[in-house]
TrEMBL record:
Catalytic activity: allantoate + H2O = (S)-ureidoglycolate + urea
Name of the molecule in the record: Probable allantoicase
Main EC class the enzyme belongs to: hydrolase
UniProt keyword list: Hydrolase, Purine metabolism
Lineage, highest ranks first: Bacteria, Bacillati, Actinomycetota, Actinomycetes, Mycobacteriales
Gene that this polypeptide is encoded by: alc
Length: 324
């Protein structure tokens, strides 16, 4: 796969990352390094000659040597945001003489909360990546062409070794059984919203605007470079579905001397008409702002957030309901 294709899908959110609620719920072996490291948001780190009770400490998941014994090692990840998977990166950073020569990835869609062991033992896992050779100390990207919604993925190493990170890039899809039960955030990744484009992503990804929960620090939001012209920065968001927005929350938490001076929201209806949702409105630093949105005549399927002139935001929430 060429780098350009990999770069395209890696701009999509990582549905498995811990900050989105992902969890490594099972592994058949983690003799040398813990399975939970697979979904840590930060890049893997390595410090030579740092030995613990299990040997050299690795920032990843590492299993024991099979020494010719039959069988493979596997780990199961519950996606923080279930959805359609567009690409997967198996990152073997710092694993040189101990990486697996090949891997495969499969997926499931499940409802409810069955025990992890029961999930791992199921025989209806669907292949997303067939057994493929990978390189050590490398980012190994794979595109996925499948429109189904998934809740879990299984990474299998053939036969054993270490993987630093597993990145599962895609688009969130809501649980259909939960739709229609009340108002929801039409701009949430977990409900199916997606960043389509933005003017600048110098410091951090605009996808973080749509993450669940409150930001924990400045780096959890979207921040642009300082502008030296007369323009302003913006981000375009495809909503979870066409709907009516009733309330907007624009959160500048943790942004002090670098929050925008003002913001505006413009919607695009299903027939392509642009409508003003929030006129240019002053913002305060380190503040969760809530603004009522005047009703519009038609459903909105896309929203553009303009910030003036630049800066950083922690979260954007657009509360409403589908239809209209």
């Amino acid at each position: 796969m060429n780098d350009r294709t990999a770069e395209e899908f890696t701009l999509l959110p990582d549905l498995a990352v811990r900050t989105l609620g992902g969890a490594v719920i099972w592994a058949n072996d983690e003799s040398f390094a813990e399975k939970e490291n697979l979904i840590t948001p930060e890049p893997a780190r390595y410090q030579p000659s740092t030995f613990g009770h299990k040997g050299q400490i690795y920032d990843g998941w590492e299993t024991r040597r099979h020494r010719g014994e039959p069988g493979d090692d596997a780990a199961v990840v519950r996606l923080g945001v279930p959805g359609v998977i567009r690409g997967i990166v198996v990152d073997t950073a710092w694993f040189t003489g101990n990486y697996p020569p090949a891997v495969s990835v499969s997926a499931l869609e499940l409802s409810g909360y069955p025990p992890a062991e029961r999930i791992a033992e199921r025989d209806d896992w669907e292949p997303l990546i067939d057994r493929a050779k990978i390189a050590g100390d490398s980012r190994n990207p794979f595109t996925v062409d499948d429109e189904r919604r998934w809740t879990h993925v299984k990474l299998t190493m053939h036969p054993d070794g270490g993987v630093a990170r597993l990145r599962v890039h895609g688009e969130g899809r809501p649980d259909p059984d939960l739709l229609g039960l009340g108002p929801l955030d039409l701009a949430a990744l977990e409900n199916g919203a997606l960043v389509l484009d933005c003017s600048n992503r110098f410091y951090s990804s605009p996808n973080q605007l749509l993450y669940p929960g409150l930001a924990r620090r400045m780096g959890d939001g979207w921040e642009t470079a300082r502008r030296r012209d007369d323009g302003n920065d913006w981000v375009r968001i495809r909503l979870a579905g066409p709907g009516l927005i009733r309330l907007a929350e624009i959160d500048t938490s943790y942004f002090l001397g670098n929050s925008p001076g003002a913001a505006a929201l413009t919607g695009r209806t299903t027939d392509g008409t642009e409508v003003e949702l929030l006129p240019r409105t002053p913002l305060l630093p380190d503040t969760r702002h809530r603004f009522p949105i005047a009703p519009v005549a038609a459903s909105v399927e896309e929203v553009r957030l303009d910030i003036y002139p630049d800066g950083g935001l922690a979260r954007l929430r657009l509360f409403g309901e589908f239809g209209g």
